[in-house]
Amino acid sequence: MRKDVLIIDDEPAIRRLLIGALDRVTITHVEAATAAEALRIASAAPAPLVALLDLGLPDRDGLEVVPQLAALSLSVIVLTARDATEEKVAALDLGADDFVTKPFDSEELLARIRSALRRKAGPLSTTARRQFASGHIDRDAHEVVVRGEHVDLTPREFDLLWTLADYPGRVVTHDRLLELVWGPAHRHDLNYLRVAVRSLRRKLESNPGEPQLIINEPGVGYRVAG
Amino acid sequence: MDEPRPANDAERFLRLAQREERGRLTVYLGAAPGVGKTYRMLQEAARRQAEGLDVLVGVAETHGRSDTAVQLEPFEVLPRRAIAYQGHTLDEFDIDAALERRPGLILVDELAHTNAPGSRHPKRWQDVAELLVSGIDVATTLNIQHIESLNDLVAGFTHVRVRETVPDSILDSAEVIVVDLPPETLIERLRAGKVYLADTAGQALTNFFTPSKLAALRELALRYAAGSVDRRLTDQLTLAGDEGDYAVGERILVAVSPGKGGAQVIRHAKRLADLAYAPWTAVVVESGGARGVAGSQREQLAENLALASSLGAALMTLAATDVAQALVDQARELRASQIVIGKSRRSRWFEWRHGSIAQDVIRKARGIAVQVVPLEDADERPATRGDYSPWRAPLSALAIVAATVGPVFAAQDWLPRGAIDMLLLVPVIVAASLLRTYVGLWAAGFAALAYNYFFTEPRFTLLMNDPADVITFSVLALVAGVIGALAGKVRRQAETSAGVARLNASLARFAGLLGGLSDRESTAAVACREIGALLEVEAIIVSLEGDRLTVRGNPAHAALDLVDEAAARWTLERGEVTGRDTGTLNASDWQFHPLQTALGIMGALGAARPEQGRIIRADDATLLASLIDQTALAHERLVLEDEARQVGTLRERDRLRGALLGSIAHDLRTPLTSVIAAAEAIPAEGAYAEEVLIARSEARRLERFLGDLLEASRIEDGGVKPRIESIDLTDVIHAVLRDLRQNRDGSRVVTRIDDDCPLIASDPVLLRHALINLVDNALKFSPETSAVEIVLEYESSHVACRVRDRGPGLPEQHDTLFERFERLEGSDRVGGTGLGLWIAKNLVEAVGGVISATNRPEGGAEFAVRLPASNPRDEPDDA
Predict the structure, then answer these.
(1) Taking CA atoms, what residue in B is nearest to A155?
(2) Do the Cβ atoms of A191 and B759 come within 8 Å?
(3) Lowest-pLDDT range of A156-165, B152-161, B782-791
(4) Closest Cα of chain B to A45: distance in Å?
(5) pLDDT beyond 80 at B289
């Protein structure tokens, strides 16, 4: 029987905690303590949908495992230390879907897992409408509604919001956002992104001083609350 | 005056600065005994004691005068120290008791007094100097004739020379009060038996008591006192930026000669220097013949130099054959305005033969005034050559001439006629260049006579028939004389330069030997061996290790007796030369010289000589100074190497500690992650809701401490590498808020953000950590109900992020606020690693920002992080 989540961590205590949390919300799971074991499980059919990967593994560098799991079409959520910015960016660049920093808040972790599972369950690309925490964006209608109200966006702001909302709740790196919205030539023009985000927040957030919709991950990227 | 001035100013500043900490000296100066100095001193002291000053009488000589004795009654009198000397017991001033007692003012009568042998210092003025150095004010009495620089002058018109003198330098910073009595009154007092004249020396002083002499002495005393006031005024004027008369830039150079008259010249120069407020330099020129100077003269030269130094002259030794030229050159180099030189009374004939240095100096010193001091005793004769018998020179000259004339006479038939007179020049050159100039001159005479006797017609007579022979004879005599003189001069020059070369070679060898050594034992051993060999002395090196005196370098002298040890300690503590031949603790067999460097006193070099006589010969003084410098430098190098090694060890230890800290923090993190996840999985409801919240909050805090420890070890390793990118500080503050919301206190944080804040180039992760630490700190120190504010403002060239609290604010002294493990008073209560602010400061500085802390006028503290706004408002085209 297909399991939803593959837990990959060498710490038994963390595994047991994750299992407890998943059990409470009835998400099925399978566990692995090493990279080798994880790859074996991921290669066997039916493969789990989401891998929860701790980068500190005894037998392999966790970053090496990320592309292999992604190639097996698992959605990879990486567990990293908060101060390991470069590790986060590297994992995302290698094909990880998202990351959660340790020590984690189990509610936040479960939200990320759910979001990943949703993406796996139904392909979104067929419709032109994306739902996010406080509203939706419709590409065909060129319409953004937040808290029930229409908002006017510039084309660039619209593209940016669409790119973020394509996978609500998932972090998108700065480089990727710039590449998708402004084009590959502007990959490193972080200023464009900062200014656009600021302007988007003014239009979308109820309290721009403490944004709830467009969330910044310092040094990594942005996510839209899903 | 451009060159010597800065040094002078520095000296003055130093002198004045020292004066601040030193005790003040008040001198009651009288023209003669019996004017009432002691009486006056006691009167003044009584007045000051009545004002509340702590006054102690160290020594007061009442000489049995009852009015003076009555004056003593109100004072505490220090008991005298009994010193046994040749079966007598002498009462002396007890300096140790005085130092221990530390009065506000101590009275020490009779500044010129000579202490009993075995006292710490030979002279009482040295006791007074020590009291002053230890910060005790001293009042003392002195008669004008005891002042060193006036000694000659007074002796000149009273015909009484006083042996007990006091150097002028001790009076330099003193307040001089003249105790004046009209001569007639003084003579009346003498007749009435009111003046005490104890011993024979005192009896001789009755010579003073004629109205004219007393008047002269009185004038001298008044002038001296006026001069001293003037001098102190000038010091202060110059300090205050007023150039004063000093700017005329007098500088005096005095030529020091070995004879007794040298002292006279030096005192004269001192008086001139005082009148002109000029610095002065005493110069000795070592000409080639100086090593031939007899032992007694060498001693005298050393004494003259010591006198000049004690009167405040800078000393200088030059090596040159032409004494006058060297003096004038040096005067020009020093920009001296005057040269003072002595000249003894000699016959015209002597001067014609030897020349006079004074005459030469006058001839050469264009633009420099030359003062010639006529000397009483003609002991300036440059060379007595006492080690040669009067017959030795003519006899050796005769022998050399005979040795040449013999073969030439035998061979004269084969020799061309012109060759004979040429050959007769040979013994002259030989005698002058190998022996001495005057041996050459003798040889010249003999050669001329031999020519006349043996080789001119009629032979074997001193007659000459041929007028050509007369001419040849005269030319021969003249040429021989000139050659003899020149050859002698060349030899002297060669000797001088050979001496200098030898000196330089020994110094180079010495430095080379010391340079290769890496420990104190061998450095001391080599230094002592070499110095001992070069100066023909026994040498040791002493140093203080802790409080223990260590002796190195000479196994034969591994221990010192008490007197020697006292002298050594004195040198080590005060950097003065002590021991035999010096003014301090000269009962010691050793003479100690400090090994002084920029780092302080590295140790002391001790020198001793088993036989009588001065330990360090006058002409070795320069060499000794260089050797001491080299030895001190070698010791300094050892100390620096030691320190470098210790720093290396410390750094390595720090690095290990950092690595250990990092790895522990890392290992603690894993279980802590489980604890936090577990605590957050428990619902915070029901009876234990509070406990769950506490567990969560505290576990989070522990996690932040671990983060701090890791960050701290990264900072120490230099492992903080900012990743600079364009950031929006608003984003960073949002991240901080998100992190704090997990904290129980987090809801107290409010933000006030300037919407127009430009983007900046910085590292968002490091800034987030710094800001979290600042906010954490603010939450910790402020009441639980008060808000902590994060304010973001744009200030033209900077973006400022301020964290404000309503806590007790910063203490008065908070310069160490951002240091490691520094916590504010009472902060034990609130806990913390003591690393938070230090980390914040380091991280902010790593990204080029500035952190500061102030108190808010309305109460509480404000921490501000200012970051440069590098590229304000870099807007994309379509935003």
Answers:
(1) B878
(2) yes
(3) B152-161
(4) 31
(5) no
Residue B153, pLDDT score: 77
Six-digit token string for B45: 């002291």
Strands (E), B197-328: 252-255, 280-286, 314-319
Higher pLDDT, B13 or B210: B210
As a whole number of angstroms, the distance between CA B708 and CA B842 comes to 12
**Which CATH architecture does the domain made up of A129-224 adopt?**
Orthogonal Bundle (1.10)
Exposure letters B151-170 (e unless 16+ CB within 10 A, then b): bbbbeeebeeebebbbbbeb
Q: Is the peptide bond before B394 cis (omega within 30 degrees of 0)?
A: no
Residue A100, Ramachandran bin (φ over 0: left; ψ between -120 and 50: alpha; else beta): beta
- Return the biggest CA–CA distance within chain B: 152
Identify any residues that bridge with A146 across adjacent strands, giving them in sequence order: A135, A149
Question: In angstroms, what separates the C-alpha of B654 from chain A's closest C-alpha?
Answer: 23
* Residue of chain A whose Cα is closest to the Cα of B790: A209
A19 touches chain B (CB under 8 A): no
pLDDT per position as a tens digit, B695-736: 888 888 888 888 888 888 788 777 788 888 888 888 899 888
Domain with CATH 3.40.50.2300 in chain A: 5-121
Q: φ, ψ for residue B601 (rounded to 5)?
A: -90, 115
Backbone φ and ψ for B541, nearest 5 degrees, come out as -125, 125
Task: Name the CATH superfamily for A5-121.
Answer: Response regulator (3.40.50.2300)
CA atoms within 13 A on the CB side of A74: 32
State the average pLDDT for chain B: 79
Exposed, middle or buried: residue A36 (CB in 10 Å: 0-12, 13-18, 19+)? Answer: middle
User: A195, B879: Cβ pair inside 8 Å?
Assistant: yes
List domains and CATH numbers for chain B: 19-238 (3.40.50.300), 249-375 (3.40.50.620), 392-494 (no CATH), 720-868 (3.30.565.10)
d(CA B135, CA B138): 9
The partner residues of B361 in beta bridges, in order of sequence, read none
Q: Is the peptide bond before B183 cis (omega within 30 degrees of 0)?
A: no
Q: Which residue of B has its CA nearest to A12?
A: B674
Nearest to B756 by CA among B581, B582, B873, B620: B873
> Could you tell me if B493 lies within 8 Å of chain A, comparing CB atoms?
no
Q: Kind of pairing, strands B861-868 and B798-804? A: antiparallel
Helix A106-121 to helix A12-24 angle (10° resolution) is 60
Kindly report whether the peptide bond that precedes residue B407 is cis, defined as omega within 30 degrees of 0.
Answer: no
Burial class (CB in 10 A: 0-12, 13-18, 19+), B639: middle
- CA dihedral defined by B647, B652, B654, B660, rounded to 10 degrees? -170
CA distance B652 to B649: 5
ipTM of predicted assembly, 2 dp: 0.88
First to last CA, chain A: 29
Q: How far apart are CA B694 and CA B684, in angstroms?
A: 10
What's the gap between Cα B176 and its chain centre?
Answer: 27
Tokens of A151: 């908002």
Q: What token pair was written down for B65?
A: 């005068």
**Residue whose tokens read 């790196």:** A173
From chain B, pick out residues whose CB is under 8 angstroms from the CB of A18: 677
